[in-house]
Amino acid sequence: MPNSASSSTTTSGFELDGSSTGVGKLLASVWASRDLLVTLARKDFFVRYRRTSFGLLWAVGLPLVQAVVLAVVFTRIVRIETGGNYGIFVFSGMLPWSFLSGTVSSGSTSIVDGSALATKIYFPRAVLPLVVLGANLYGFLPGIAVLLIGAATIGEGLDADVFLLVPATVLMVLFVASITLLFAGLHVYFRDLRFVVQASVLAWFYGTPVIYPLDEAEGTLRTILLLNPATGMVSLFRSAVSDTGTSGLGPALASTAAWTVVFAFLALRLHARRDRVFVDLL
C-alpha cells in the first residue's frame, strides 16, 4: 500500500515575505522617527566636513566651483549665449542639480550601506535615504544665499520672482525624496542598481538644461527635455533669479510634478510592502 505521505506535494525552501504595513502607517512611523532622522542628518553633514581644511565652505564651494568652470568654458571656448549673465545662469541650474545628483547617488544605496544600524534597532528603513536628503539639504541652503547675492550683484537683479525659490525648493525636495526612496528600496533586491545610477547620472546631466537654455531646443529634442523630470525643477530655480532660458516653464513643471507623483506612489507602495523584510536581505 503506497505511503500517503509520498503522494502529497512537498514544498521545500521558504518565501521571504511579510505583511504590508500600509502607506498611512508607514508615513506615521516615519514622522514618529523625525527626531532620529534630524539627528542622523545633522551628524552626517558635520562629520562629512569635520576634518577638512575649509570645513563647511565645501558644501557651497563645490557647486560654485563647478559653475565657474562651466561659465569660463562655455563663454570663452564654446560660447553659449543666454542673453544674461552666464555665471548666474549656470549656478542657478547647478545648485539644484548638485543636490539631486548627490542625494540620488548616495541615497539609492543608503539602506544597504546602513545595514549596521538597521539590523540593530527597528525604525522605518525609509528614514535612511531621507537622512541623506536631509544632510545634503543642510549644505544646499547656504548655496541659496550665494545665488541671491550673485543675482543681486552681477546678475539681472532681484524682483518678486525671487519668492519662486520657495516652491522650487519644495518641488526639488519632494521629487528627489521620491526617486531616492524608490531606488533605495529597489537596491535591496537589485544590487546592480548602484552602478546603473552612477552611469545614468552623467547622461541625465547633459539631458537636463543646466548648462544650456531650454529656449534653444526645438522639435523632438525640446519634447524630450520637457519630459525630463529634472527640467521643471531646474527651470523654476532659474526663473526665480533670471529671465533667461525659462520658456516652456509650465509644461516642464507639469512634467516634474507628474513624475514626482508617480515616483512617490511607487516608493510608498514598495516601502509599505517590504519594509519589514528589508533587514533580512541586508
The gist of it:
The protein has one domain. It contains 13 helices and no strands.
Structure keywords:
282 residues; mainly alpha
C-alpha Rg (nearest Å): 22 Å
| Topology, number of strands | 0
Q: Main β-sheet, in a few words?
A: none
Tell me the distance between the termini. Answer: 48 Å
Structural class: mainly alpha
List the topology elements:
Blueprint lengths: L3 H4 L15 H10 L1 H15 L8 H20 L9 H22 L2 H4 L1 H4 L8 H27 L11 H25 L3 H14 L12 H9 L1 H13 L7 H30 L4
Helix pairs in contact: 3-8, 4-5, 4-8, 5-8, 5-9, 5-10, 5-12, 8-9, 9-12, 9-13, 12-13
Plain-language structure description:
The chain has one domain (20-275). It is globular, with a radius of gyration of 22 Å. The chain contains 13 helices and no strands. α5 (86-107) packs parallel to α9 (165-189) and α12 packs across α13 (249-278). Mean pLDDT is 82; it is low at 4-16. By secondary structure, the chain is an all-alpha fold.
